[in-house]
Structures are given as C-alpha cells and as structure tokens.
Amino acid sequence: MAQIIGAVATSHVPSIGNAMEKGLQKDPYWKPFFDAFDPVHEWLEKKKPDAAVVIYNDHGLNFFLDKMPTFAIGAAEQYENADEGWGLKVAPPYKGDSKLSWHLIDEVIGADFDLVTCQEMLVDHAFVVPMKLMWPEGGPAAIPAVPVTINSIQHPLPSGRRCHALGKAIGDAIESYPEDMRIVVIATGGLSHQLDGQRAGFINKEFDVFCMDKIVNDVDAITALSNHDIIEKAGSQGVELMCWLAMRGAMNGRVSAAHSNYHIPVSNTGGAVMVFDHEPKPVLKAA
User: pTM higher than 0.85 for the full model?
Assistant: First the structure.
C-alpha cells in the first residue's frame, strides 16, 4: 500500500522564481530564505518519495474569476506551464501520474467532496516555484506530481475547517492506494501578505509564528478561525494558509516538525518553510 512519508510547506511568491533565475540565492536579501532549503533537500534525499501531491491555489493561469472551482485536481500524464506575466521562464512540462490521480479522485468524491477533474491542466508559479525549490537540479523530471488546487481568490472561499477535512480525505485516499509508493504532500502559499489596498505590504510575524507552531500539534486552533479572521490577521492573500491546513489534514498519524524556518520579508510576504515527518497510524487487524 502507498504511504505518506511526510510533508513540506513553503511560500510560493513569483519573486522567488526570479531570484533563482538570476542566481541570487546567496544575495544577502535572499540567502536566509534559500539556505533554509538545504535541510529540505537532505530530507527529500533521505525519504526518497516516489510521487508528490501538491496542494496550492491557482492565480488565473488555469482558472479565472468567471469560473473558479472550489477544489480541483489534475488527472493528466503531464502538466504544462505557461507565461503568467511575472517574467518567469516557462518551465518544461511536469510529469503526472494519472493512475494515482484517478484513485484519489474516486476516493475523495466518494468521501462527499465535489472535485473538478482536469484531464488537461496548466500549473502556475504556485506549483512550479516550490517544485524548483524542492528539486533544483531535477526539474520537471524529478518526481511525478498530482496537482490539487483550492480557491483562495474568488469569494465565497472554503473554510479552513473544510480544507482540513479535504486533506483528511486525500490522506485516506493515498493510504488506500494499492501500489507500494512513498508519497510526499506539498503545500504552497502564504504566509501573511497583502498585495493591494490600504494594507498592501502587510505582514504579521506574530500570527505566522502562531500558525507554524499550532499546525503541528494543535491544528484546531487554526481551523477554528473564520476566513474573515485569517484575512484580518494575515492579509487578503494570507488565506493561502488553507493549503497548509489541507496538507496537515492528509497526515492522520503522529506528526513532528523535522525542520522549520521563517524569514521576512520575501517580496512583502512572510517567507516560511516547514518539513513534517509522519508516522502513520498502525493498521488494526481483526483477531
């Protein structure tokens, strides 16, 4: 059976991709952020995942305001990237695993979640930038991925509690997959930031640190917050935190933080990365 070996969560702002393109990883502004990924690379090399489930929010490359699904999942053998206007180079196609995707789709819909199933799907910087951060040398060939998007753009938005429950359904689906696979769950987005309006440039370090602490062993302290609460505390784009909540929901066993780093500012964003070890609950066998 497949198993969830753990998870990685990271911010995904496009400027990170531009910094990588320009070779600014050792620049004093960027160094504290990029240095935090050395332990991530070591962890991935040790764990050797066979596939990734990547939970993120689309920014208009694949969906737009006239048609914005609450939850969507890719079911393709590859995923194209395209020009978003951020100055990022268009990445080669990323590998998918349609067999794993369809299993997740069947199981998650069976758990009463209404997913939009995408047999063709573009992936934007929220997918591409984290994948480059995780596997800077491997690129698109590094690991097959299943993209899962959560609407954090067009109101009404799903609640943090609902996204956490979606993650539980995804985790159950992964652990019922009959293939012998090691799967890492990746969440991208956040933390606190606001790109427009009177609070443009807003960052709330205290709230970000609170979330990074509570998401390990007290996730209910975060899911109890309404979207209005999160926007007030983390900015209008801070609701990308819901992707982290879905990731956390996927891990139903014992969870510990293997690595954690927080650095501000990263392009007016709370730049965070966390790695989670996961020890699945033992399967009880009938006597």
Answer: yes
